[in-house]
Write a structure and sequence with these properties.
Belongs to the anti-sigma-factor antagonist family. Pfam families: STAS. This is Anti-sigma factor antagonist. It is a single chain. This protein is of the alpha/beta class and 128 residues long. It has a single domain, classed as 2-Layer Sandwich (Transcription Regulator spoIIAA). It contains four helices and five strands; from the N terminus they run E-E-H-E-H-E-H-E-H. The radius of gyration is 13 Å and the shape is globular. It starts with a strand and ends in a 10-residue tail after the last helix.
């Protein structure tokens, strides 16, 4: 389900997690552990490559939201890399989280977006 690599040419500390297939409750733990591992490894920017994901359910969305919150709390950056499959895009749209995430359609775009997010002012603790 996941492959991890550094993102050459991106901001220092950028980790890319490449996800594939159907992401549902059966793979939620693996995804959460991969995110935890990247953060524990010092990732300042996390790119989740969803371009090969064909389906995602609410448990996956929960894991993505928690990852986004953790990155914001650490003054880091999370970028979803697409293009997103119609089923994944629909999940984000139906749950009104499509504007919550930064989405890029190329690795170069994801690197650029991550660098821009890392330059933003830090979020106030506890700010929603």
């Amino acid at each position: 389900m996941t492959d991890t690599s550094e993102a050459p040419g991106g901001p220092p500390g950028t980790t890319v997690l490449r996800l594939r297939g159907e992401l549902d409750f059966t793979g939620e733990r693996e995804l959460a552990e991969a995110v935890d591992s990247a953060l524990a490894g010092g990732a300042e920017a996390l790119v989740l490559d969803l371009s090969a994901v064909t389906f995602a359910d609410s448990s996956t969305l929960r894991t993505l939201v928690l990852a986004q919150q953790r990155m914001e709390d650490a003054a880091g950056a999370l970028v979803l890399l697409g293009p997103l499959a119609p089923a994944v895009l629909r999940l984000l749209e139906v749950t009104a989280t499509d504007d919550y995430f930064t989405v890029a359609d190329s690795l170069h775009g994801a690197r650029t977006a991550a660098a821009e997010l890392l330059r933003r002012p830090p979020r106030e603790p506890g700010a929603g």
